[in-house]
Specification:
The chain has 168 residues and is an all-alpha fold. It has eight helices and no strands. Helix 2 packs antiparallel against helix 8 and helix 7 runs antiparallel to helix 8. It is elongated, with a radius of gyration of 17 Å.
């Protein structure tokens, strides 16, 4: 988990230099940009669901069965969609596409790596502990939440660079 956090942190540092440079000035290949935007939106952690559940645990609350039943099935059921989105932004697929800079392909790979590891940590901790009546310590939930928020920030920043439709 620490490795994923350091990867996300390094990615945010590199990304800040890309964002501060103003990013791309004109559309490259809108089809690839739209595909990347869709993938990023598919892997973004929405404010409800697992994120809300982690926030509740961090605040010292013990989630109710209803909160767990609302959050975990959606999280688990979204796995196929997340996997498909991650395949669309992996370096092996985009690293050789000349419509995309290597830096952008690397950033997308860092996001994918962060998502895979964070999703695994969340799944392991919440599924195993909450579905069996266990308890997730607030400190651990906070670590997951910090990583989730950092990853979401990175996703938002990169999505903004590729989302030319939103700039119109």
């Amino acid at each position: 988990m620490t490795d994923a956090l350091s990867t996300i942190g390094a990615g945010l540092e590199l990304l800040s230099s890309v964002v501060s440079s103003g990013g791309p000035k004109r559309p490259r290949g809108l089809n690839i940009d739209r595909e990347i935007v869709k993938a990023l939106r598919d892997i973004y952690f929405a404010p409800d669901g697992v994120k809300a559940l982690l926030e509740s645990i961090v605040e010292g609350n013990s989630p109710t069965i209803e909160e767990i039943e609302n959050a975990l099935p959606d999280f688990n059921d979204a796995e196929w969609r997340v996997d498909r989105a991650l395949r669309r932004i992996e370096f092996e697929r985009l690293g050789y596409d000349r419509r995309l800079s290597l830096r952008a392909a690397e950033e997308l790979q860092k996001i994918a790596y962060g998502k895979v590891n964070l999703r695994s940590d969340i799944k392991r901790s919440l599924n195993e502990k909450l579905t069996r009546g266990g308890r997730v310590p607030p400190e651990f939930a906070n670590k997951l939440l910090v990583q989730l928020n950092a990853l979401n920030a990175m996703i938002c920043a990169v999505e903004e660079q590729f989302n030319f439709d939103a700039r119109r």
